[in-house]
What we know:
Strand content: 15-25%
Largest sheet: 7 strands, mixed
CATH architecture: 3-Layer(aba) Sandwich
Bound molecules: S-adenosylmethionine
Distance between the termini: 40 Å
Number of helices: 6
Shape: globular
CATH topology: Rossmann fold
Radius of gyration: 16 Å
Order of helices and strands: HEHEHEHEHEHEE
CATH superfamily: Vaccinia Virus protein VP39
Structural class: alpha/beta
Low-confidence stretches: none
Oligomer: single chain
Strand order of the largest sheet: 3-2-1-4-5-7-6
Number of strands: 7
Number of domains: 1
Amino acid sequence: MGYELKSARYLAREVILQALLPGDTAVDATMGNGHDTLTLCEAVGPAGHVWAFDVQAQAVEETKKRLREQGMDGRAELIHAGHEHMAEYVKGPVKAVVFNLGWLPGGDHGVTTRWETTRRAVESALDLLAPAGVLVICAYPGHAEGERERQELKAFLSGLPNRRYNVLHQRFLNAGAGAPECFVIQKQNET
Ligand SMILES: C[S@@+](CC[C@H](N)C(=O)[O-])C[C@H]1O[C@@H](n2cnc3c(N)ncnc32)[C@H](O)[C@@H]1O
C-alpha cells in the first residue's frame, strides 16, 4: 500500500523519517518499549547517535533487548532518568526529538508523563534542536492526566514565536473524543 492516513503515531513516524539523515543525532524522550528508539536508530544509521530516556527500568530493559535483536545497540545511549534532565545528558544540536506521552503499554498506568516535567523537557528539546530540526509529540487525551497535558501543551506551543518555530497540530476530526493527537514543531533556519 502507498500513502496511508492512519494514526498520530504513524504521522509522527513519517515526520521522523523525513527529517533524519544518516549521521544525524536524535533524542527519544519517552523510550517505553523502544519502538521509536529503534526507528530513530535506523534513520540515523551507523554514523549517527540517539539518546533515549525513561523513568522505568522495565522500559530501558525492553528497549535494550529490542535494539540488540536488531543489531542497533551501539547507536543509542539508554538513560534511566526523566526527560526533564535531558539537557544534562544530550550534546546538541540534534535534528529530531520525539515524545510519545502517556504510560508504558503493558506496564503500570500510574507511571505516566505529567505536564510539569513534560514542559521542562519540551523547553530543553527546543533549545537543543538544530536549525530545521523537528520536535514531534504524540499526546493521548483519552485519560484525565493526558487531557490536562494535551491542553497545557497546546497552549504552550501556541505561544511559541513564529519567527523561530513553525508549529503544526494534527488531529483526526472524526475519530471521537480522546483520540491521540500529533504536534510537530520545526525550528526555523537562522537568518
Ligand atoms: C507511551 S510510552 C512510550 C512508548 C515508546 N515511545 C515506544 O515506542 O514504545 C510513555 C513512556 O513515558 C515514560 N515516562 C513517564 N514519565 C517520564 C519522564 N518524566 N521522563 C521520561 N519518560 C517518562 C513512561 O515510563 C512510558 O514508558
